[in-house]
Design goal:
The complex is a heterodimer of chains A (253) and B (229). Chain A is built from 8 helices and 12 strands. With 253 residues, chain A is α+β, with helices and mostly antiparallel strands. Chain A has one domain: Phosphatase 2c, domain 1. By secondary structure, chain B is α/β, with parallel strands linked by helices. Chain B has one domain: Rossmann fold, CATH 3.40.50. In chain B, helix 1 runs parallel beside helix 6 and helix 3 crosses helix 4. The chains are: A alpha+beta (253), B alpha/beta (229). At the A-B interface, helix 5, strand 10, helix 6 and helix 7 of A face loops of B.
């Protein structure tokens, strides 16, 4: 039994500049497999808001097609690896190409990152292209399962639209049942990740997971989370769009 | 609305700020003496003040200064704006400009290595050259190497190079060094204060860039440049 909340909120710089929230996110439950997808649209790309939305939708469709009606998800999950991430990337690029053709725009105008988690009690798999992170805890041990991909300079990263996207695809899997997983876009990185030692900051993740588990109303919890992500304390530290996904197994803490 | 549990318990980590290294290459040859060097000195004072008034820039911008006149001297190694004490230049000697540019690339490489070792992210470095003359090392290997470094650095987007011509500077020779898409700019009179004001606001823009957030455009150089760019 999983509890989850996934949210994207617009950054203050985007509000000031009249830009939309270019992050998108969402979760779907297919049988007992939870698929969470996040995407951060590049600020410099004209249609990245649409790009990030298409990425989230395509990830949901991709894994729905895979698991829907399948009697034994364990068997499928056991074999998931980076090749599925590559096939997902190809489907995403096909969708974005089609959207670009409709607008006579370029693929790069839809530049966005991709973060997907496929969570099941038998195995959990994480895919990522670009910056942001997935971290997880299992049997009390916490760590990053993906890490922000960064170019030489601050602010440079890969997107699903860049030629190096496939090469920079990150994949990792955790066998068995995880306690919790946290995913986020780069807007929260500098608050929640220890860049010196490449670790997720537990002081950030744990209170949120505890809060989610203690809450008996996920809608109210999400409202509180959105208020927190728009609070002065957070806005002091980041003016970018912020996406956060929290998934916890009931009774794990 | 006051923050509610459990959000009030969420703790943030302090990461080192990403850095924006900027090297000032300053011509302190004999011809700069008098009004020009005085104006340059007060311009640098103002540069430090303006960057210091910006919360992010003062943590992120790092300044180094190399003077070229009587020799090439790193008179200020990279330092944060917060602890930057503007020097007072004195003018004398020749114009070893090529050697100064080569030295700028050397200290930049060294700085970037240190950032990498410490896990500190950095923005694309800036090299800002100010001269009122022509290089006296034009026929040496230093000049050839300086031109190669700037061209290679610009085409691979390793750094941004700006050349500023003061008074009777030989702008044609300076443009051998400057990238074709960003030719040397001529300073209007001795408007160093306006020049440094522009540099500090440009560095503020660059250093406040939120990774992936908003496209950058620098403020126009009107007020100090006598030609349009």
């Amino acid at each position: 039994m999983w509890k989850h909340v996934v949210t994207s909120v617009r950054g203050s710089a985007h509000c000031i500049n009249g830009m939309p929230c270019q992050d998108n996110s969402g979760a779907v439950l297919i049988g007992d497999v939870l698929v969470v997808a996040l995407s951060d649209g590049a600020g410099s790309a004209k249609f990245s808001e649409e790009g990030s939305k298409l990425i989230v939708e395509t990830a949901h469709e991709f894994f729905s097609d895979l698991f829907n009606g399948h009697p034994e998800p364990e068997g499928l999950l056991k074999d998931l690896d980076s090749s599925d991430g590559k096939r997902l990337l190809q489907e995403i690029r096909n969708k974005l190409e089609a959207a670009a053709a409709k607008k006579t725009a370029a693929l790069n105008d839809f530049a966005s990152t991709m973060l997907v988690a496929v969570i099941h009690h038998s195995r959990s798999c994480f895919y990522q292209i670009g910056d942001g992170i997935w971290c997880a805890r299992k049997s009390g041990m916490v760590g990053a399962v993906t890490w922000p991909q960064q170019g030489e300079y601050a602010g440079q990263t890969d997107f699903v639209t860049t030629s190096t996207a496939e090469a920079s695809l990150q994949f990792s899997a955790i066998p068995g049942k995880i306690d919790f997983a946290v995913g986020m876009s780069d807007g929260l990185e500098r608050l929640a990740l220890d860049f010196r030692y490449c670790l997720p900051h537990l002081g950030f993740c744990e209170p949120l997971i505890k809060g989610l588990l203690a809450s008996d109303n996920e809608v109210l919890f999400k409202d509180g989370l959105n208020l927190f992500l728009n609070s002065p304390r957070v806005l002091d530290r980041t003016d970018d769009d912020k996406t956060l996904a929290l998934v916890a197994h009931v009774g794990c803490l | 609305m006051p923050e509610q549990l459990p959000f009030i318990d969420v703790d943030f980590i302090d990461n080192p700020e990403p850095r924006c290294p900027c090297v000032l290459l300053v011509d302190t040859s004999g011809s700069m003496s008098g009004a020009a060097i005085d104006a340059l000195n007060s311009g640098i004072q103002q540069f430090a003040q303006e960057l210091n008034s910006d919360n992010l820039a003062k943590k992120r911008v790092e300044v180094a200064i190399i003077s070229f006149g009587s020799g090439v001297q790193t008179i200020q190694d990279f330092t944060s704006v917060e602890s930057f004490v503007p020097p007072r230049f004195e003018a004398n000697g020749s114009t070893p400009m090529g050697q100064a540019v080569v030295e700028a690339f050397a200290i930049l490489e060294d700085r970037k290595n240190r950032y990498r070792q410490a896990g500190i992210a950095y923005f694309r470095p800036w090299i800002f050259l100010i001269t009122d003359g022509a290089p006296t090392d034009h026929s040496t290997h230093f000049w050839r190497k300086a031109v190669d470094l700037v061209q290679a650095g610009e085409s691979s987007k390793k750094m941004l190079f700006f050349g500023i011509a003061v008074n009777d500077a030989d702008i044609k020779i300076l443009n051998e060094l400057c990238p074709a898409n960003r030719p040397a700019m001529k300073l209007k009179g001795l408007s160093f204060r306006e020049l440094f004001s522009w540099l500090s606001s440009s560095l503020k823009t660059v250093s406040s860039a939120n990774p992936g957030a908003v496209g950058l455009s620098l403020p126009p150089p009107s007020g100090w440049a006598s030609i349009d760019i």
